[in-house]
Amino acid sequence: xxxxxxxxxxxxxxxxxxxxxxxxxxxxxxxxxxxxxxxxxxxxxxxxxxxxxxxxxxxxxxxxxxxxxxxxxxxxxxxxxxxxxxxxxxxxxxxxxxxxxxxxxxxxxxxxxxxxxxxxxxxxxxxxxxxxxxxxxxxxxxxxxxxxxxxxxxxxxxxxxxxxxxxxxxxxxxxxxxxxxxx
Length: 183
What we know:
Elements: E1 2-5, H1 10-14, E2 21-30, H2 33-44, E3 57-59, H3 87-92, E4 97-100, H4 106-114, E5 118-121, H5 127-130, E6 134-141, E7 150-164, H6 171-182
Parallel strand pairs: 1-2, 2-3, 3-4, 4-5
Antiparallel strand pairs: 2-7, 5-7, 6-7
């Protein structure tokens, strides 16, 4: 396991390669479809984003309410490709990492390589388990979006896998290629 912490420095990202198992600690932000629409609108209007995304990580997730004694409820990853429309613009503005599930578009893969980012995947369907790695949660933007609001989370040793590295390698494409050769 490779331990990484936020904010993510470019050299940390350059040490990560497709298939690496990592544990992430530090602050990350949640943002889903509705928040990304607002991010893109702000970028179009040349307005500041509600959070400073430079060297930060966005977790594509919307939490459920916290139970007694918990920082947050279930918090599993959502399908990342739904945010592909805005991801290149965020990477260009300094976003360093993303956490989600599933494949990304070629345009996002190219932006990850160009701007030296990393795409990490979490296990889908394991939101209750993943929430155990969250020690603090606070809404920091777009509160009116309720579960799709932007939360700032303190994460401690969340297990993830590098799916797209800053060298343009993509675990999904590589694994599909292996299966095609066997057919």
